[in-house]
Amino acid sequence: MLLRDRIFKTLTRLVGRAIGDFNLIEDQDRILVALSGGKDSWSLLYALRHLQRKAPIKYEIAAITIHPGRDTFDLSALHERLILDGIKHEIVDGHIVDIVNENLTDGTNPCSFCSRLRRGMLYTFAAREGWNKIALGHHLDDFVETLMLNMFFNGSIKGMSPKLLADDCQNIVIRPLVYVREEITRTVAAGLKLPILGCSCAYQGMSGSRRQWVKQLLKSVEQEIPDVKSNLLASMGRVRDRHLFRKRSLGEETDTIRFVNDD
């Protein structure tokens, strides 16, 4: 069985390390795993379930899927597999496709809009039903790519946090796959023969060109610097503030950098 496989053991070891490093899970936590049906969220769910059996603390987990409202998005195989493995599964009818179609304006990224809607529905459900943490399946590659996207295209040093208080100041979001590379989740999902669901949205692929460009850039750089992704991830926790630009005074920011010619 894959549960005894070296790759699955690597997955659970890295997830366990992240839980310890960032204090992601505490005794009596109730954790909702956002299960999209992709390889990453599936791998996260089974890693947490495996660790739950051996953990010195007690915590509850369940999967939650936001149904986008399209008939082509069939959850039956996913739901049946979770029932077979004894995992509680919540389904929230989001009607996201209709909301996006009715409210999308020129210049709005449909995927970002959809993501915000899903996140809001997750937060609302978790707060209402008493789940105190939401686990998302962002892996190491996502962390690094997001950092580079913000630096290259937004002019900011900003990434994702393994643990943060959500904007609603109620839910805590955790990302236990922070140390896990994407190829590991791909191998685990295939080995467990999990029913993978793709995005059935008509906007799929419209906004991923920049991320794909960053993926290809990193792949190219890795040929010269094999540890580049690990180094970039580590840099997010090794910020030397005094070697970055600082505000001129408290409460004051400037968008203009002035260079003085002393000649």
Q: Would you tell me the overall average pLDDT?
A: 86
Low-confidence parts lasting 5 or more residues at pLDDT below 50?
256-263
How many separate structural domains? 1
Give the quaternary arrangement of the chains: single chain
Q: Estimate what percentage of residues fall within beta strands.
A: 5-15%
Number of strands: 6
Evaluate the radius of gyration: 20 Å
The third-level CATH topology is Rossmann fold
The CATH architecture category equals 3-Layer(aba) Sandwich
The order of strands across the largest sheet is: 3-2-1-4-6-5
Number of helices: 9
CATH superfamily descriptor? HUPs
Overall helicity: 40-55%
Shape: globular
- Secondary structural class: alpha/beta
Report how far apart the termini are. Answer: 73 Å
Strand count, sense and barrel status of the largest sheet are: 6 strands, mixed
Keywords: Transferase
GO molecular function, one term: transferase activity
Domain tRNA(Ile)-lysidine/2-thiocytidine synthase N-terminal: 31-187
GO biological process, one term: tRNA processing
Walk me through this protein's architecture:
This protein has helices at residues 6-22, 39-54, 76-84, 96-103, 110-129, 140-154, 182-191, 209-222, 228-235, and strands spanning 30-34, 60-67, 89-93, 133-135, 163-165, 172-174. With 263 residues, it is of the alpha/beta class. The longest helix has 20 residues, at 110-129. 27% of the residues are buried. Keywords: Transferase.
What is the structure about, briefly put?
With 263 residues, the protein is of the alpha/beta class.
